[in-house]
Amino acid sequence: MIDHIMRGVAGVVALILIAVLCSRSRKDIRWKPIICALAFNLLFALLVLHTPLGKAVFGLLSSGLIKTMKFADEGIKFVFGPLFGGFNAVPGFQGSTYVFVLQALMQIVFFAVLINLLYYLQIMQRVVKGMAWLFRRLFGLTGPEATVVASNIFVGQVQGAMTVTPYIKNMTEAQLFQVMVVGMSTVGAGMPIIYAGMGAKIDYVLAANIMAAPAAVLFAKLLMPEREEITTDETVTQTDYQAGINLLDAAGRGAMDGWKVVVAISVMLLGFIPLIHLLNWVVVTVTNNVSDLETIFSWLFAPAAYIVGVPSSDVAGFAKLLGQKIAFNEVIGFSGLKETALSPKGFMLTCFALTGFANFTSVGIQIGGIGELAPTRRSDVARLGMRCVLAATLANLLNATIAGILFVG
């Protein structure tokens, strides 16, 4: 017990040290918000993973979310009929009974409807506003920064930035970097459903997504500390979001938004999974069957596994999935979760580490998305992109390390 706690503490120190060494200006680092962000993560993880009340509340939240999403199955069954059961009802079919697009992706359409209805009813705006107030007080963020940090727990990386569109063009470089990092560190409220359908434990993914917000603050402020005099008292008027003219219109718009996400993920998988197999074939051919892509990823990201505190028997599997997440995206990483043999602790740490948009593809997404919101900052977003991937990756690894400290087998 003491050994794995000490290893976890050493991992936290190592991750912070990496960020300090890579910092743009170490002399300008303000340690108060960083310590507050780390304390918040520790306390939240302790509450969720290590106390009966926290486990019960979060378990209730997770089971409630899963139960709610089961209602999505009724729409899928109606539209796709016997295909929903994994082709079980097709005479003579003997293939896999699991259809990813039906049993993991289609639920996102219904979830998008619920989220948009919450926006129409002004409930989501109040939740974001309350969390933004808390983050301003805890971490010393400006109004626009705090609003984006709170928003990205519920929406995607570009949608979070959209909540403060008028402010982006005048943000300092450090503020813009904060907006980018939190977008890559979190996954929004819809993606955990997809990850759960791919084999992740939804409790872990939900906790990791919330913890990613303060972790993003921590590493953004370490890697890109503010060098200009700013005020943190600025209030924010969020950009108006037209959820719909009435409840029916809001539900319809949410469904169409959710469908776009389903199509985007499906197309991405259709493109990236064959690419992985192609690259693997190239590596195997060039090395004359001596090595493959999985082995390369295992070697490249093994140090990260040791820092996080992954058990020795799980290092190769953890490193492979983490490598796939960073090189491609987290959906590709989660897609290999079921086929990877991991211990209970290794499984938990992997779920935490994979929960985040920290990958090279996200750089392009942010250049296009944030660059469209504020064209004058497009070059800044492009220049900060790779540093942002580093910060977001460190944030996700920090969450995994903290979860590992509190793991009870």
Please, could you describe this protein's structure?
This protein is mainly α and 409 residues long. It has one domain (2-84, 98-405). It is built from 21 helices and no strands. It is globular, with a radius of gyration of 21 Å. It starts with a helix and ends with a helix.
Task: Describe the secondary-structure layout.
Elements: H1 2-21, H2 31-50, H3 52-70, H4 72-80, H5 100-105, H6 107-120, H7 123-139, H8 143-151, H9 157-162, H10 165-168, H11 173-185, H12 191-197, H13 202-223, H14 247-286, H15 293-300, H16 302-308, H17 315-327, H18 330-335, H19 344-354, H20 360-373, H21 378-405
Helix pairs in contact: 1-21, 2-3, 2-13, 6-14, 7-8, 11-13, 11-21, 13-19, 13-21, 15-17, 16-17, 17-19, 19-21, 20-21
Uncertain ranges: none
Multimeric state: single chain
Structural class of the helices, strands and pairings?
mainly alpha
Number of strands: 0
Average per-residue pLDDT, rounded, comes to: 87
Report the major sheet.
Answer: none
Number of helices: 21
C-alpha Rg (nearest Å): 21 Å
- Please indicate the percent range of residues in DSSP E strands (runs of 2 or more): under 5%
Order of helices and strands: HHHHHHHHHHHHHHHHHHHHH
Molecular shape = globular
- Rounded to the nearest angstrom, the distance between the terminal CA atoms is 10 Å
Number of domains: 1
Helix content: over 70%
Question: How do you describe this structure in short?
Answer:
It is built from 21 helices and no strands. The chain has helices at residues 2-21, 31-50, 52-70, 72-80, 100-105, 107-120, 123-139, 143-151, 157-162, 165-168, 173-185, 191-197, 202-223, 247-286, 293-300, 302-308, 315-327, 330-335, 344-354, 360-373, 378-405.
